[in-house]
């Protein structure tokens, strides 16, 4: 079993601090991969997070973060209901930071992304990268934690226009 977690969304989004719990062999492979990317995580960031844990900042902040993300999730779900054309479906997550959406089978979300960014100034993560064989071409991951409520509504409206034009 491998357990991955992060402090990024519950403590400080820019910190990019995470951890893994796994067998010694798996951790060794993670260490090699991490060294290939950036050698080590900033000591400063690690000390700041440690102090945040000592002062109970994370636990004190969690109820606020949960409530904010829930409201943003609900705003995105409402926008999806309002703007999306027939044939588009999406998850209704009970936690997390993303909504998984599926568009009609004839739409390749990698191609849709190019149009969405260039013509509609909206972006998403194409779903193919979440599958080992990358065979799923008509799915996408939508993040609701970063944008404002207004940006969520406008972004989904623009995404819906891009999908209608595909």
Walk me through the structure.
The protein has five helices and six strands, in the order ββαααββαββα. The protein has helices spanning 24-38, 43-54, 57-83, 109-120, 149-165; strands at 3-6, 18-21, 89-90, 98-102, 125-126, 139-143. It is globular and about 50 Å long. The strands form two sheets. A four-stranded antiparallel sheet has the order 3-4-6-5. 50% of the residues lie in helices and 13% in strands. The chain is of the alpha+beta class. A hairpin with a 7-residue loop joins strand 3 and strand 4. Helix 3 (57-83) packs parallel to helix 5 and helix 4 (109-120) crosses helix 5. The longest helix has 27 residues, at 57-83.
Distance between the termini: 41 Å
Oligomeric form: single chain
What count of domains describes the coordinates?
2
Structural class: alpha+beta
Global shape: globular
- What is the N-to-C succession of helices and strands? EEHHHEEHEEH
Could you say what the CATH architecture of the largest domain is?
Answer: Alpha-Beta Complex
